Amino acid sequence: MNAPFAAGLAAAMLLASPLPASAGDWVPAWMASPQPVWSADFLFPTDVPATLGDRTVRQVARIGIGGTKVRIRLSNDHGRNAVRIAAAHLARSTGGMTINPASDRALTFGGEAKGTILPGASLLSDPVDITVAAGEDIAVSLHFAEAVPVETFHWDGKATSRLVQGLHVSDTDLPLGETITQRLFLSDILVDAPEAKGTVVVLGDSITDGAGATLGADTRWPDFLAARAAPRGIAVVNAGISGARLLSDRMGTNALARLDRDALAQPKIATLILMLGINDIAWPGTPFAPGEPPMTFERLTSGYRQIAARARANGVRIVGATLTPFAGALPGTPLEATYHSTAKDALRQRINDWIRTSGTFDAVADFDRLLADPAEPARLLPAYDSGDRLHPGDAGNQAMADAIDLDTILGDTP
């Protein structure tokens, strides 16, 4: 056998080798879309430290589907500097910052206890053997031994995390420290779930991110949907970002820019639910975006078509959600006078009619009709309103999740 042929055969044999056992059948059980930390001149403060050094952060997340192995993804997507993880642990939470010590697992990255998240990159941990169930609370503890800049985070975490001085990743309970409601670096928890039929990603703004939901109660509408879907073997994850827009950046990158990372790259993705556009319509002319021209029907529908086309090109089912009423939104804030107008609501209604009838989407979730006050359709029904006339409260979120038809969400799935 000549040498070039032998070398080619060896390469072919390597390519044909079976995947290692750790390859698994991974699905996302929880996610928090990464956002860039914005400057101090923005309307909202970030409320996170600029740097972390010799500190441990413990973050608790409720997973939407169970499995037999777990791994996490850490994101430095918007970072300009490397982030070094000195130690990372995962365990079952028993409430608050307390963990079950018997479930504590040290995480590794390529077999090493330490890991580095390069600028603009993410870092996936090795799998750990631990059987977890849908609805369990998982605590992820990260230690940063040296000063690292916080340039990537998720602003509206809807849960309380704790920062403490020193190395405490395996402590059953944490000492007192600083509490935050943002997510730091933790972007995904994945589980090995061979029986999972597919993943549903909800790409949205603050309504999906849970701005009106009770803090720490896991009552965002994708949370309720995940609980309904898990017994069917369907994973549901929340790719909402408060302040997100379809076509523009600020509190997060625009949907067209983050579509691949937050949705299409998710393991076993089968369906994308798109609920974006209110901020595109409402922000121009407000303190959020005082110099922006009004949104147009043509620009917004072009963006929707592009999302739908890219989803279908990847074999992903696309569900369009209508935009909910927001007349009188944000009373008592600097946004009250300019966030809503008759012209903005007319565009919202025109967009909703297009979502329902254009055929752009495989299915439609008509949240507008579900949440509108029949006596005044430009406003949220008071029973579903969180109180700010923009974001649904817990009851509204439950109604939204209950309105999704699980028999058709994955298309041909029985």
TrEMBL record:
GO terms for molecular function: hydrolase activity, acting on ester bonds. Pfam families: Lipase_GDSL_2 (PF13472). Keywords: Hydrolase, Signal. Residues 202-399 form the SGNH hydrolase-type esterase domain. SUPFAM superfamilies: SGNH hydrolase. Residues 1-23 form the signal peptide. InterPro entries: GDSL_Rv0518-like, SGNH_hydro, SGNH_hydro_sf. This is SGNH/GDSL hydrolase family protein.
